[in-house]
Amino acid sequence: MIKSLVVEDDPDVLSTVSKMLGSAGHEVIAASTTTEAIAAVNDTPDLDMAIVDFWLAGQHVLPTLEEMLQVRPDLPVLVISGGRKGFSLEKTDAVSSLTGSREFLQKPFTRAQLLGKVDQLLSA
After folding, report:
1. Around 44, how many Cα atoms within 13 Å sit in the side-chain half-sphere?
2. DSSP label at 32?
3. Statement: residue 80 has pLDDT above 80
4. At what angle do helices 89-99 and 62-71 cross, to 10 degrees?
5. Whole-model pTM above 0.90?
6. Is the pLDDT of residue 21 over 90?
7. Contact call for residues 31 and 55 (beta carbons, < 8 A)
């Protein structure tokens, strides 16, 4: 079973993504804050992947991504984002990839799009 961390501060999106992954056989660890995300990475050495929203509580997650990847440099990360005024999706993708994210997916997305990106992430 694939163990996946989902980091998202919108409870509806967190629930939906968790259900999408769960229906595909993933064990999901949900986190709604950067503190919870770091704790999950530290406490779950067998974590297979992470899906992280680029904007949490109005702040970008670059420092959190860097910290997560310091603990687990091999952790595959998919960044998701719906964008933010003044910060294009292209810029979000580019900046997150420089930090260590391997894949990017724009919100809103379908179950098929999410699972396709997850397959790409895990097969890379």
Report:
1. 22
2. S
3. yes
4. 30
5. yes
6. yes
7. no
Query: pLDDT tier at 66 (50, 70, 90 boundaries)?
Result: very high
Rounded CA-CA distance 82/3 in Å is 24
- Could you report how far apart the first and last alpha carbons of the chain are, in Å? 18
Residue at token pair 């959190």 = 64
* Alpha helices (H) in 1-124, listed in sequence order: 11-23, 34-43, 62-71, 89-99, 111-123
Q: Write the CA distances from 122 to 38, 48, 103, integer angstroms.
A: 21, 8, 10
- Assign 36 a pLDDT band (cuts: 50, 70, 90): very high
50 token code pair: 């992470």
Q: How far apart are CA 120 and CA 57, in angstroms?
A: 28
The Cα–Cα gap between 75 and 82 comes to: 23
Amino acid at 56: L
